[in-house]
Design goal:
- The protein is of the alpha/beta class.
- The protein is built from four helices and five strands.
- The radius of gyration is 15 Å and the shape is globular.
C-alpha cells in the first residue's frame, strides 16, 4: 500500500453538466477520468473492490471517500465476514453500500435520497459504520 495516494473529500468535482454547448462533452471526459483514477486508487488502497455499477452510482451521486472511509468500510466487510455473512448492507453516515462479502466487492451505493422507499433484497446482514 502506497502512502502517496491522495483521497479527496466529497464532492470530488461537479458532475452536473450545464446546458451550455460543449460543457456536456467536457464533463463526460472529466467523469471518465475521475472514474478511472478513483477506481485505480481505491483498488490499490485496499482489498475492497468497487464494481463498475458501484463506481457509476458513486459518480452520479457525487459521493467520494477518503482513505479513512475506505478503511472503515473494509473493517465493516471483515466484521460481516467474521459473522458468516455473504452479502451485506453497510450504512455509513448518509450512504448505503451493498457489499458482496465473499468477493470483497462493493456492488452499489446509494445516498440519503436514493434510500427513500428503497427495499434492500438479497442481503443477509447489515453493518452500521460509525463515521
Amino acid at each position: 500500500m502506497s502512502n502517496d495516494i491522495k483521497y479527496h473529500p466529497q464532492p470530488i468535482y461537479p458532475l452536473s453538466p450545464s446546458k451550455a454547448p460543449g460543457k456536456m462533452e467536457q464533463t463526460k471526459k472529466a467523469g471518465e477520468a475521475f472514474q478511472d483514477i478513483f477506481k485505480e486508487n481505491l483498488n490499490k488502497a485496499s482489498d475492497i473492490k468497487f464494481s463498475a455499477h458501484a463506481m457509476k452510482r458513486l459518480e452520479e451521486r457525487q459521493l467520494g471517500f477518503e482513505k479513512t472511509d475506505i478503511s472503515k468500510i473494509k473493517e465493516a466487510v471483515n466484521k460481516a465476514r467474521n459473522k458468516g455473512a455473504e452479502s451485506s448492507l453497510l450504512l455509513y453516515g448518509d450512504v448505503a453500500l451493498v457489499a458482496s462479502v465473499k468477493n470483497n466487492t462493493i456492488i452499489t451505493a446509494l445516498d440519503k435520497q436514493g434510500m427513500k422507499d428503497h427495499v434492500f433484497t438479497g442481503i443477509d446482514s447489515a453493518v452500521i459504520i460509525e463515521k
